[in-house]
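TL;DR need structure tokens for one chain.
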Amino acid sequence: MGAGGSVGGKCVGCQGTEDLHVFETHAGRLHTACSHAACGPCLRQLVLSQLPKSRERWQLEILCPESGCRKRIPQRLVLTVKEADDLAKAIDTDGLWPSLGDEVSQRCPLCGKAAPVHVNRACGHAACESCWLDGLEEKLRWCRENAAMDIPCPHPGCHEGCFDVLRHFESPFLEELELYVREAKVQLIEFSSWAVHGPPGAPGPVCPVCGCQSMALLHCPCGYAACSSCWNGFVQQQLVWCQENFALGPVGCPRHPGGCTQDVFPVLPSAITIFAEHRDHLKKELRRLEAVAVPRDLTGPGPTCPICAEASLCLLRPCCVEHVACEVCWANWAEEQIDMCRLGRHLPARCLWPSCAADLAESGMWRRVKGASAEAPRLPSLLADLDRRQRLQRSYLYPPAVQVDCPQPGCVGLGYLGFDMVMCFICEHQWDATEGILGEETELPDGEEVAEVSVAGVRVKRCPSCHEYIEKNGGCDHMTCRCRHEFSWATLKPWKPGR
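>> reply
TL;DR here they are.
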């Protein structure tokens, strides 16, 4: 410890002039100190006299005792006293009061009992373990009822939280308290930097909208404030508006009852995720309808359908520029034609507009509007059945000559000849293969012949009487079956002598 010399001053304690330590000579570049001085013994006595108060405040601060001077003595000079150095180390590393001077034990500043004293670093207040844990269950209940973020400090008038002190003790309520404090911190992080709240141990502010206490209020840049529940309610209202109007975002829509139209995302970051999911869904639907859709402005609400006068995601025009309608109207129109389409085994062909003669069966639009399944529940089934029919018709093992349509009403399926029974590959209906075969009662027009069919690679016809397959390998058209029925090979009509 270097001496400052006799710089024209006297010791603030004994008024001596020998071995003085001038305070300002020990101050750093960023600190200021007075020009008063103290000798070694007086400096020690001065520091020891103020250490108890510094320990109570949990802040090492020694003031110059000179009358009218309230400047601090430089820490470099204060730390030359061992007890002050011990207190400084305890403040930096430990939460326990150190002993000062000849102290054997400390006394709790709240209850006065001799016991180890633990310090709350948040506020500097100290108390024994019993005082910290006193009424912990009731305090936790109070925190929940008043939306406080932490157990308040037990010192009167202090609203700092004290969980960092309590976690060093043992109590059956500490686990529940730890969970509560952790959830409060997570909630504050989600609130974003726009959240305004008081000290952790103070009651939460009252929301001016719903009148409920919350841990923090979120302030819009315009000054409007509300709790997170109310803000989430505002966001849900905006989301409903966007969904009803097929808008990607609430452009021009008031963000809250204050009438502000500023972006709400900085206030409530969770809204970013909510609207991102909504936008992704709308963009996916627009890509699905893109081939037949009329381009639209993505910054505002969707266009109004000229048929139903409702807002829509986009308008579809499969044929003419003027013939447009929303997906729901096209789906309803397709649903009206389902029965006729199944009867004719084809997709809806007529345009929604009466004067239009365009054929929409192959326009590809019906495969896109099938997404509106609530309005056209039978359209997806018709599309799937017709796709299945086309695959059956393209079979190279069973050419068109042996393909027969299903006789069930409303079924667009088909089966293959070649067996006694035929089964539809769509509805699985089975029927006798001879149904519909020309018999004796059938009269063909003059000159019309019954075509042969190929069964297992053999060209055959069925006997009009017993319906067995017959192969003709030569000779005239006069055929005699094993059932003794005689008929003409060409027409399958009964054979008449003299032909």
